[in-house]
């Protein structure tokens, strides 16, 4: 599995209602399942990835934000 595939899998894991967008509420629900020491990773996920400011992150926005971090 390459990085894009694993990031897509993570996105799909967070997008629990499967509408193709990740919201802050979905991120928080996902964080609750993570070990506390890893939760910070997703903390700025929605505000930093949401380039068109509709308060939800599409897969396109997600991949653009996560892959540019290197
Ligand atoms: Ca969703
Ligand atoms: Ca957006």
Write the layout of secondary structure elements.
Elements: H1 3-14, E1 21-23, H2 24-33, H3 45-49, E2 56-58, H4 59-67
Antiparallel strand pairs: 1-2
Helix pairs in contact: 1-4
One calcium ion (CA) is lined by residues 50, 52, 54, 56-58, 61.
What does this protein structure show overall?
This protein is mostly helical and 70 residues long. The protein has a single domain, classed as Orthogonal Bundle (Recoverin, domain 1). Helix content is 51%, strand content 9%. The protein contains 4 helices and 2 strands; from the N terminus they run H-E-H-H-E-H. It has a two-stranded antiparallel sheet. Helix 1 crosses helix 4. It is globular, with a radius of gyration of 11 Å. The mean pLDDT is 91. The chain binds calcium ion (CA) (2 copies).
Outline:
The chain is mostly helical and 70 residues long. It has one domain (3-67): EF-hand (Recoverin, domain 1). It contains four helices and two strands.
What value does the average pLDDT take? Answer: 91
CATH superfamily placement:
EF-hand
Q: The biggest beta sheet, please?
A: 2 strands, antiparallel
Q: Please, how many helices?
A: 4
* pLDDT < 50 stretches: none
Strand order of the largest sheet: 1-2
- List cofactors, ions and other ligands: calcium ion
CATH architectural name: Orthogonal Bundle
Radius of gyration: 11 Å
Q: Provide the domain count.
A: 1
Beta-strand proportion: 5-15%
Alpha-carbon distance between the termini? 16 Å
Q: How would you describe the oligomerization state of the chains in this entry?
A: single chain
CATH fold node name: Recoverin, domain 1
The chain-level structural class is mainly alpha
The H/E string reads HEHHEH
SS elements, strand count: 2
What is the general shape? globular
Helical proportion, percent range: 40-55%
**Broad CATH class:** Mainly Alpha
């Amino acid at each position: 599995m390459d990085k894009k595939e694993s990031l897509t899998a993570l996105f799909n894991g967070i997008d629990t209602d499967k509408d193709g967008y990740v919201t802050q509420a979905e991120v928080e629900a996902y964080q609750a399942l993570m070990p506390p020491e890893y939760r910070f990773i997703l903390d700025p996920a929605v505000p930093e990835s949401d380039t068109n400011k509709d308060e939800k992150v599409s897969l396109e926005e997600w991949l653009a934000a996560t892959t540019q971090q290197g």
